[in-house]
Amino acid sequence: MKKVVLTKGLWIMFVLLFLVTGTPWGVFAAGSNEITVSAAASLKNVFEEIGKIYDGQNKGIKTFFNFAASGDLKRQIEAGAPVDVFASAALREMDDLERRGFLVAGTRRNFAGNEMVLARPALSKVQISSFKDLTRPEVKKIAIGNPATVPAGMYAEQVLKHLRIWDEVKDKLIFGESVRQVLDYVARGEVDAGMVFSTDAKVRAKEVAVVMQAPRNSHNPVIYPIAVVKGARNADGARSFVDFVSSADGKKILEKYGFKAEK
Fold this sequence. Notes:
The protein is an alpha/beta fold. It has 10 helices and 12 strands.
């Protein structure tokens, strides 16, 4: 069946309609043959392929995706958004939802890992070969995700502070509202450098050059958890989707896109 991706604008429309009319979120929720998956922006390409294959193997199922920063998705779930499955790019958001009782017990699992990298525009003439080079005066703009809502931004802040260059570069920072927005800034040459996941840089390899990987001890491990959201309209389908992501077939697709599949 056809896979549908919900745009940010469509989700904003849902939120506004909910707030203005007081209509319960359940009115907009997926039917029994539909699954709504809210997933971190960095999962867009890989989850679109996973969704296509999953739908093909489960006739009659239609998978809807909502991709955004994990922190924004968490807030949508807290507001009652019609979500069956949540996949985050960090433990922080999932931990908070679990602590507050928004997840179905026993469905949470870690399914993938990633790495943080320093990237620059492929055609940039600004010489950057290390994180220390970010402190040089010719480096004017550095993009990272908003640390408060974007996991990649949280990891980026940890890296810069660990390397003791945060204070020197903080006035150069441009905050993106998702890791993919940061990637766009770098790919379009609107900044001199940016920090994204290695899988994101791979998506725009012709436009983005990876300078180096962040030292693994410079930030928390990049772990992607997934779980069924309590109140899911299609709980069985949601569990099935989570199982597929963690299956041998799901792991192969994750690895194809550069993720480290959890064993």
